[in-house]
Amino acid sequence: MNVVFAVKQYISKMIEDSGPGMKVLLMDKETTGIVSMVYTQSEILQKEVYLFERIDSQNREIMKHLKAICFLRPTKENVDYLIQELRRPKYSIYFIYFSNVISKSDVKSLAEADEQEVVAEVQEFYGDYIAVNPHLFSLNILGCCQGRNWDPVQLSRTTQGLTALLLSLKKCPMIRYQLSSEAAKRLAECVKQVITKEYELFEFRRTEVPPLLLILDRCDDAITPLLNQWTYQAMVHELLGINNNRIDLSRVPGISKDLREVVLSAENDEFYANNMHLNFAEIGSNIKNLMEDFQKKKPKEQQKLESIADMKAFVENYPQFKKMSGTVSKHVTVVGELSRLVSERNLLEVSEVEQELACQNDHSSALQNVKRLLQNPRVTEFDAARLVMLYALHYERHSSNSLPGLMMDLRNKGVSEKYRKLVSAVIEYGGKRVRGSDLFSPKDAVAITKQFLKGLKGVENVYTQHQPFLHETLDHLIKGKLKENLYPYLGPSTLRDSCFSSQILLVLHMSKLDLNSSIKPKVLFLLEYRNRCFGALQILVSCP
Amino acid sequence: MWEPQELGAMRSHLSDFKKHRAARIDHYVVEVNKLIIRLEKLTAFDRTNTESAKIRAIEKSVVPWVNDQDVPFCPDCGNKFSIRNRRHHCRLCGSIMCKKCMELISLPLANKLTSASKDSLSTHTSPSQSPNSVHGSRRGSISSVSSVSSVLDEKDDDRIRCCTHCKDTLLKREQQIDEKEHTPDIVKLYEKLRLCMEKVDQKAPEYIKMAASLNAGETTYSLEHASDLRVEVQKVYELIDALSKKILTLDLKQDPPPHPNTLRLQRMIRYSATLFVQEKLLGLMSLPTKEQFEELKKKRKQEIERKRILERQAALESQRRLEERRSDLASRATNGEVVPPRRGPAPLRKAEGWLPLSEGQRQSEDPDPLLQQIHNITSFIRQAKAADRTDEVLMLQENLRQLQDEYDQQQTEKAIELSRRQAEEEDLQREQLQVLREREWEREQGQAASLHTRTRSLDFREIRPFQLEPGREPRTHLAHALDLGSSPAQSSTATKTSPPSLAPEPFRGWSGSPALGQEFLPQSTPSQRSEAPSLNPFDEEEDLASPSAEGTASPPAPEPSLGPPARLLREYNPFEEEEEEEAVAGNPFARPDSPAPNPFDEEDEPPPRTPASLPVPGNPFEEAPCTNPFEEDSDGGQEGAEPIEEELLLQQIDNIKAYIFDAKQCGRLDEVEVLTENLRELKRTLAKQKGGSD
User: Fold this and answer.
1) ipTM of the modeled complex
2) Which residues of B touch A124 (CB under 8 A)?
């Protein structure tokens, strides 16, 4: 279940089916993002696709010598644009692919617009989501809920995205959801509805144990997204921000022109692929090795290439060298910037206190540490607010809760209203009242023993003590011990807990906290966990 | 990591779409076809030579004319018809209009429409074959309207009257035809470009395979053919470059300038062509020069040789072990010797049963059938290449390789077989001989100890396997150790007989290891060895006396002609047999132009001894104006080597130019500088070389 591959296969198929000749790819805003995540420009150029156009762009010239491949979401606007396009065709022939189910009436109105008979293909290819990593997809939705309920528009988009995902992977799953979340239940129902309605599409070869779609709501564990993470990928997301694999580095002081915007994609960058899940310290030493390797290969400028053999060697190594020099300068810049931000924002100290807040139960020490950091001028207002949020979540019902005092400190520090409001929003979203299970004090004997043992052994790395709650959930799921009263099946299910499904689609639904941009990397972070612990694959949908 | 994943689900709406479209479009198509058919009927006869009345009759038969009385006003402009404003009928639909609203269709246009429709009518419903549009440039037909002349002339010799509606429909049709026939320049160039790319995709792998094979020293392909192919491929690259540049600059100076999208398209095509060239051209490995190739060939032979020796050693080793066991048995029970010796080494034989004894014998009379087959296939390959049938060539080459492997193996088998038989025969004598030999060996050691300690220690290790050829062993060994100038005449003639590539026998016993080579002494000629088939160690001793004395007392001073071949040293091979005679003949190192892997040992090589076969300047140890050993070679044999060297230089210059271009495009100035420096260096070298050769 590789989502990047799934989408890429769709795109390749489209291009292949259009035959030889110069081609233009006609897309809308969303499909542009979808395509750009799986194909690089040079890759797609080799398939004779030379132009990329937006269907809504008015400034398109008539080019009858081009074939048009249209990859569009089946929205009303797109259908209208397409009708206009077909009435006055700009290209010789059109291959039309919709990224999701399109209604029969839309097909009819398109057909009636095609008076010149330029359409050669009309198909549904379900690449209706952005494939971030092989096991992660996103729908790039910001703020999908109103209060604790779905925004209807986003609910339908999320449903479309999920069903497209299932279709592109050819899975027809059983669905479970988190009982404590109304939103998770709604989404589960919507997906089920589509599966029932389009039952013909979902007729795949049955596996012995059907795959499972588990829909979770982030409100069960509001802690994880608030912590600073220390893996390469998570840090890039958190500290620099990455959008469709592109990092904007223009704010970095003294950045050179070529490096204003860099592309970081595990598909094409070996170093990144190998290091994205390693922690920051390891990245440092790996970068050093990369540099040394590079130095060795670098042709010495002074050294004259005296013989033909020397020259030949130089010429043969040159392209490799060039490629390497690009990679090296990119990663050195990115890691350099990360480390600058870490020290500028005092993140090591902040992270230590965050971990203490998340993993330990010593109220007075935690409070003291938070207060101390709030006085530190280098701690940004955002980090300060996050510390208070963590405190508020953990010690919400503590007898000597001193949240008001901390709120005062925040105000004194000059933290803006926007961030201070987040504290109460977090409580409302992920507070004790909402949570279906207990985050901080384990109840069953096994868990208590585990925690006790952990305390005895000491902590390996103070910055990565915290284990996401999802860890436990998945553990139970894999072992078939996930409680049905907390995570019920949708509709009757013939198969019950006893069987273990190797194919798990996990959907993490996130909502209001997405006000702050830092939540996305947390979802990514969870994937690491997959690599270490499971052979099973989960796909997270994040809707930040 | 990933389970195989099939293409995701998909659903086609095409049939639905076509159904709706067909319903909508049918009437239009029918209309057009009707008009075209009528037009055809109207133009089917010779208008100029037919009288007006008859024409009118025909025209009326094509389509019924609307009655004059039914139409008092022109339906298009609304003017009333009168004597002055007369009615006109459309010949295509029969309707009536006034003169102002009347259109005319010239005969050429009519012909164009009817002839084009003949072949496209059948394919009308398929959109991919008849792309059409109303938005092209309107050209051609306007002129026919302006050529309306004599108003009152009722007879239309070369035009057909029609209404505006029919004319419009026909004009649309004409545009479709035009668009179908008209290909813009960019498309033409682009098609050429793609053709070139396809050619590269087809030729480059072929070349790479050749170059890899040549670089590995194989002789499956010829060097000339490969370099021809390289030149060919490079020419295609140049063409790609030129074509894409042309596309890039297409219409650039036109007024008004082309649409930005057109420019973008042109840029992208150029960019992708550059990418293509970069990726593929850099993958083209260079070919070895002639000298290098010889070198490589030799290396490969050594490699094969070494492998074979190892195999044989292993076989004999196990044979020996078996025999030891057998002699143990023999000491206990006399009938232990019955144990067939063949069973022991059997697992080591790769192709059991391949080598019946009779074949081995036959082979000594007429050439090996395998060899014949190899020859045949080589000539087939040549023919197929001439006929340009690449796939067949590939198949044949594969075949050839297999045959060659088979042959090699066969030789090995034969050797093992032979030695085994010998071992059996001599089995009984062995023990006694062993004693004798050892005694003799000790003596010999004493003689040579001062000079050849290292050789000795090596040989000592090998002494065990030698047991199989007890009679011969000490003799050859001694020869190896001491016999410096033995039978020079023979060895020199042997080297002249055949070039290595033709020699059918694989060479045995060659060691390319320079460390050993230094201490090695000239091999003894095999004929010497074979002249004493049942050697007695005591006989040998006598034989040895003179050469050894000669060898130790005076360093060899044979005639010049003997020089290199005699000095081409061979590691002593304990398992040598009669075949060796041939092996010597084909010894690759008998060639004078092979400096690298054969380090001539200093003491043994006084230049005066070698004038005939190895020119003095060719000695890599003496003059080293340049670090490239192959350049020196070319100095030695100027004529042949020079052009290739130049070619290589030119190639490099080309490559570097490409890099400079690339680096400039990406704005990496420091790299440009380094590269330019290289380029200058190369050009200087080239100039120097040219000057030198003139």
Assistant:
1) 0.76
2) 10-13
